[in-house]
Design brief:
Layout (H helix, E strand, L loop, with lengths): L7 H26 L2 H8 L6 H22 L5 H19 L5 H33 L4 H24 L4 H19 L27 H32 L4 H4 L1 H24 L1 H21 L3 H15 L2 H17 L1 H32 L2 H4 L1 H13 L24
Membrane topology: Multi-pass membrane protein
GO cellular component, one term: plasma membrane
GO molecular function: transmembrane transporter activity
Amino acid sequence: MMAPRVPGAQLRHGRVSLALSFFIQGAVFALLVTRIPAIQDRYGISDGLLPVFLAAVPVLAGVGSVVTEQLVKRVRPGRVLRVVQPVVCLALAAVGSVGSMALAAAALAAFGLSVGALDASMNMLGVSLQRAYGRSIMLGFHAAYSLGGIVGASLAWAGAHWQLSLALLYWPVVAVLVPLALLVGRWFVDRGGEAQGGSEEGPAGAVVPLAMRLLLPLCLVMAFAYIGDSTVSNWSAKYLQDVLGSSEQLATVPYNVYMVTTLLGRAVGDLGVRRFGAVAVVRAGAVVGAGGFAVVAAAPGAWAGMAGFTLLGFGLSVLVPQTFAAAGRYAFERHGPQAADMAVARLNIFNYVGFLIGSPLVGALGDAWSYRGAMLVPMALVLVTLVYARSFGTPAARYGDGHERPRTADVG
């Protein structure tokens, strides 16, 4: 199935607007997760109850992704994204300003449901826009997300440094991001290269069922990548301080370094896919990521451990964007654009599965065995990606590897 020719200027506008949407989401999510201790203190959430609050967000996000899979049969993903992104921003502000624990729980529930729909629809648009370009651009969108995460984490640090209340930190940011989200939503390029102003109805006729078993290798890669990512985000500081004997200040550095190297890996990743192909890039990412975990596990001191977390950022950075891209391409070539959207929504659920499993798994292994040994488990799971790497390079998944011509006019 061939994507229609689309004016290059329209595609460029769509690419920039979607990158800004990824940036907004990266900033919002970082502002939430980096201020969890402050949220806990504000509402008096006990240490025993906090894991319930934290687990509820990805569980509800998975529900939101499932709902979005059904919703995009009738409404284009661009419209879904245009509606839910302001909701996510407002839910963040509500988390920081409501007056009770019950209302904070409701705000977090709204955040989780809407962020699941946002992640799914945002990646649907990325996959369809890459299809219209005919070459790899998906990593660039996720680079924008990483950049937003760095900005959001920096704002959160500034808020903590200046002892700003959560409301005073969140509301000015949301006051900027909500209008920006509404503005960029006007230029989304949707399924098949049709602009947001087109018909909201999907293709006529029944949607061909998409066999989940055929997506299973990609679902496993997605889950394993997020187990690795959640290990870094939740355990890097504790590992450096408690296992490698760093200072408290130095222990905050590995995750920031990881975020920066993730950004750098994604910024150049599309060039690597175009030059060497998706399979080679995914294999290299898995090897480098696993090597990072090995260095962390064997590190004799804090600086060696930091080098391992640096490698992890470069390695893991390419896996998630390429997994979304491969699933969308596979489904599109077999069943069309609606099936591609459904594949992305289903795959997105395993984002949250990995996030839910990763942190408790490492914590349990660390307590029962050792934290050095615990780091070998995500290392082994990331290496399993090598077994499934061919799933990224089948004929149905060979965009952006130098063998496809762009299908659009004057694309920059």
